[in-house]
């Protein structure tokens, strides 16, 4: 039983192509949707789903977090309800564990094929898209992977020696556009140029992100806002006024930083040329 946790980004897209090229069977492809991915990611999911089915692979199954009453709870709803920011703003990863990892785990726990494999004493193989330059990420979880009685973790891109550049090349050679970066539109890890993209291309999403920040700010003691050391609202207002404020602008922010990294610039070409509708003091999760 082979499962792919598809993240909607460059590495996991290239991994799926590589698995198809090598004839490695895949039984399930899961995408955990926190409900706030950026528009280009939702557009790309449809593109990739079509490519997968055309090449004899399973389509993408979308999963998400649900409460005990069965109602879906998005990360945006959770932040607004608790008047707090995504947990990564506070240095935690609870939002990813709750809205990315847990929904996939719940799906597998209920999936008959997974349950059958476990009943036979087998482990389900889970393919993970870390590229050849991310050995440290794998090393951090190596001991935990070995103890996992349910899953056998496999890192194909590392086995194949595929770097980020290789992943980009493979996607392009497959005739697919590049997926762009996958993240929530209110993710505290977003770069300043990405915040500017929201301002210029998706003002409705920026307004929703600022609503999360505004609601949380009275409770913030250790962080300034969605920018961690600063508030997005202050950044946008300063950017509009072309003014510099402490800890918001740095020299590389005076111009778009996407020109600083060739690989990142290539990845973002799809994001900036396509658009589509998005789905609708203690960290949430």
Topology:
Blueprint: E1 2-5, H1 10-21, E2 28-32, H2 39-54, E3 60-63, H3 75-82, H4 94-110, H5 112-119, E4 124-127, H6 135-147, E5 151-154, H7 156-160, H8 164-173, H9 192-201, H10 203-216, H11 232-241, H12 262-273
Parallel strand pairs: 1-2, 1-4, 2-3, 4-5
Helix pairs in contact: 1-8, 3-10, 9-10
Ranges where pLDDT stays below 50 over 5 or more residues in a row are 244-283
Helix content: 40-55%
Can you list the strand order of the major beta sheet?
3-2-1-4-5
Q: Element order, helices and strands?
A: EHEHEHHHEHEHHHHHH
Number of strands: 5
Question: Helical element count?
Answer: 12
Q: Gyration radius, to the nearest Å? A: 20 Å
How would a crystallographer describe the biggest sheet? Answer: 5 strands, parallel
Give a quick summary of the entry.
With 285 residues, the chain is an alpha/beta fold.
Structure keywords:
285 residues; alpha/beta; five-stranded parallel beta sheet; 12 helices; globular; disordered C terminus
Structure in words:
There is one protein chain. By secondary structure, the chain is an alpha/beta fold. The protein has twelve helices and five strands. The chain has helices spanning 10-21, 39-54, 75-82, 94-110, 112-119, 135-147, 156-160, 164-173, 192-201, 203-216, 232-241, 262-273, and strands at residues 2-5, 28-32, 60-63, 124-127, 151-154. The chain has a five-stranded parallel sheet with strand order 3-2-1-4-5. β4 (124-127), α6 and β5 (151-154) form a beta-alpha-beta unit. α1 (10-21) packs across α8 (164-173). The longest helix has 17 residues, at 94-110. The radius of gyration is 20 Å and the shape is globular. Mean pLDDT is 86; it is low at 244-283.
């Amino acid at each position: 039983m082979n499962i792919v946790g598809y993240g909607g980004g460059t590495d996991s897209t290239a991994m799926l192509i590589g698995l198809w090229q090598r004839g490695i069977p895949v039984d399930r492809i899961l995408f955990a949707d926190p409900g706030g991915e950026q528009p280009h990611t939702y557009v790309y999911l449809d593109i990739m789903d079509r490519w997968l089915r055309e090449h004899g692979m399973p389509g993408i199954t979308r999963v998400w977090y649900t409460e005990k009453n069965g109602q879906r709870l998005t990360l945006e709803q959770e932040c607004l309800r608790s008047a707090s920011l995504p947990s990564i703003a506070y240095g935690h990863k609870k939002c990813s564990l709750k809205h990315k990892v847990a929904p996939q785990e719940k799906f597998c726990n209920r999936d008959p094929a997974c349950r059958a494999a476990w009943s036979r004493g087998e482990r389900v193989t889970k393919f993970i898209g870390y590229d050849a330059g991310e050995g440290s990420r794998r090393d951090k979880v190596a001991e935990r992977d070995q103890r996992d009685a349910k899953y056998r973790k496999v890192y194909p891109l590392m086995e194949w020696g595929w770097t980020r550049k290789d992943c980009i090349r493979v996607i392009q050679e497959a005739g697919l556009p590049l997926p762009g970066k996958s993240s929530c539109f209110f993710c505290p890890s977003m770069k300043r140029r990405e915040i500017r993209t929201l301002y210029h291309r998706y003002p409705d999403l920026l307004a929703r992100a600022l609503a999360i920040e505004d609601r949380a700010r009275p409770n913030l003691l250790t962080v300034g806002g969605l920018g961690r050391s600063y508030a997005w609202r202050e950044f946008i207002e300063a950017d509009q006024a072309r003014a510099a404020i402490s800890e918001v602008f740095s020299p590389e922010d005076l111009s778009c930083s996407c020109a600083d990294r060739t690989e990142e610039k290539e990845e973002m070409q799809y994001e900036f040329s396509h658009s589509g509708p998005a789905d609708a003091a203690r960290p949430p999760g």
